[in-house]
# Entry
Amino acid sequence: MLDSTMEFEMSQTASDFTHQLGASELALTATAREKMLELFNQVEDDELKAIRVFVSGGGCGGMGYGMTFTDSQSEYDCVRKEEGFEVYVDAVALNFLRGVEIDYVEKPTGASFVFNNAFAITGGSGTCGAAGGGCG
# Structure
């Protein structure tokens, strides 16, 4: 027989899922936060609600990390509230992003958002294949 706590947890629906992201789960540097706000404010679409941080791929190159604007929040999104915008990360992607710091870096070759500590979280060798091997 299940205890009452387990029964409650199992009876919750997906619409009951809510989670506020803290800095320990997904950190933004001040520079990244300022650039995100600037970009969010430049978009002329009143439908946009947030910036979505996502994880894609895998394979030889490892996981890919990115961001896009979004006009919808899924029932599984974790939310980080910032002044002037929000950041959404779905619960599955958060497993690969937990502890990551997003920074914005300007270099002579160009400017970009950088996901610090992402490699340490997802593991891997950082190379494609082993001696005499390859991707497949």
